[in-house]
From TrEMBL:
Single Gene Ontology MF annotation: G protein-coupled receptor activity
Keywords, comma-separated and alphabetical: G-protein coupled receptor, Glycoprotein, Membrane, Receptor, Sensory transduction, Transducer, Transmembrane, Transmembrane helix, Vision
Residue ranges the record marks as coiled coil: none
Organism, as annotated: Microctonus hyperodae (Parasitoid wasp)
G-protein coupled receptors family 1 profile domain: residues covered: 24-268
Keyword hit for Glycoprotein: yes
SUPFAM superfamilies: Family A G protein-coupled receptor-like (SSF81321)
Record GO biological process: visual perception
TM segment ranges: 12-33, 45-71, 83-109, 121-141, 169-192, 213-238, 250-271
Subcellular location: Membrane
Protein name: G-protein coupled receptors family 1 profile domain-containing protein
Family statement: Belongs to the G-protein coupled receptor 1 family.
């Protein structure tokens, strides 16, 4: 596949991700906000946080990458690339942060018989943004470096920059932005599974509706890991093993990671009966 084909194909894929990602996430956000009576619950407020992050990716990240693709990578200036990378890194870390909070909320509900209040859910949503900025901001102030990636279609951390400051930042980013959140998520669900296995009356401890929410959060977690793992592997290979990939191998993981904004609203819609009812009501769908 030639560079020209890669750029054209990437632009087409990004256009699809933009339209679907924005439409699906906006629909979820619109319905939750407008049906506060039934959907204004702590877990759904974290969903709102995740949805807002995905909408920003759809209206900022994908369109700018689309422009870069149709210009064959000459779209970026140094300043534009740096701030794009900051925004996208913040939103990506915010995604895993929101999903981690959802896993903790499920753990509290099942293991500790505690539910978050709406106020605490808002506070945790704000904490996710602070957490995300704490991981994305260092390259702006000199620790680490942002630059073009994927044939200049996107911008992110300069994975191939081997300076000690950049290497230490990459370790910081991977440990706090990937390894620890995933470890917390896995620990939460292993604890939930262990607890449910010990129960002789599962429905009494965890209602059918609550089990659906657990399945929803698990699927969102799995979806996030699947879509971001190829990108993480390529980034690590470039960073630590002096890997030299073909244009297609460089671009595909980046596009696959961006496509994650499509799946969360689909998972949420299919596993939330009340959302489906509210969706049909607000969009006047009679099925």
């Amino acid at each position: 596949m030639t560079f020209n084909h890669v750029y054209v194909s990437s632009a087409n894929i990004l256009a699809v991700i933009t339209v679907l990602g924005f439409s699906f996430n906006f629909a979820v956000l619109y319905v939750i906000i407008n049906d506060r009576k039934h959907l204004w619950k702590p877990i759904n407020l974290i969903i709102i946080n995740l949805t807002i992050q995905d909408i920003f990716i759809a209206i900022i990240g994908c369109p700018m990458a689309f422009m870069a693709a149709i210009s064959h990578g000459v779209f970026w200036t140094e300043l534009k690339c740096k701030w794009y990378a900051l925004i996208m890194t913040t939103l990506g870390i915010g995604n895993i942060g929101s999903i981690t909070v959802m896993a903790i909320e499920r753990w509290l509900m099942v293991r500790m018989s505690q539910t978050l209040s709406v106020r605490k859910a808002f506070m945790l949503a704000g904490a996710v943004w602070i957490y995300a900025f704490s991981l994305s901001l260092p390259p702006i102030i000199g620790w680490g470096k942002y630059g073009p990636e994927s044939l200049n279609i996107s911008c992110s951390v300069e994975w191939e920059n081997y300076s000690s400051r950049n290497a230490s930042y990459i370790i910081y980013l991977f440990v706090l932005g990937s390894i620890i959140p995933i470890a917390i998520i896995i620990a939460c669900y292993l604890s939930i599974i262990q607890h449910l296995k010990k129960s002789t009356v599962r429905i009494g401890l965890c209602k059918k509706r609550d089990m659906k929410v657990i399945k929803m959060v698990v699927l969102m977690t799995v979806s996030f890991i699947i879509t971001w793992t190829p990108y993480s592997f390529v980034a690590l290979a470039l960073c630590g093993f002096n890997y030299r990939a073909s244009p297609l191998v460089l671009v595909l993981p980046c596009l696959f990671a961006k496509s994650s904004i499509i799946y969360n609203p689909i998972i949420y819609a299919f596993l939330n009966d009340q959302f489906v009812k509210s969706f049909k009501k607000f969009f006047q769908i009679n099925l």
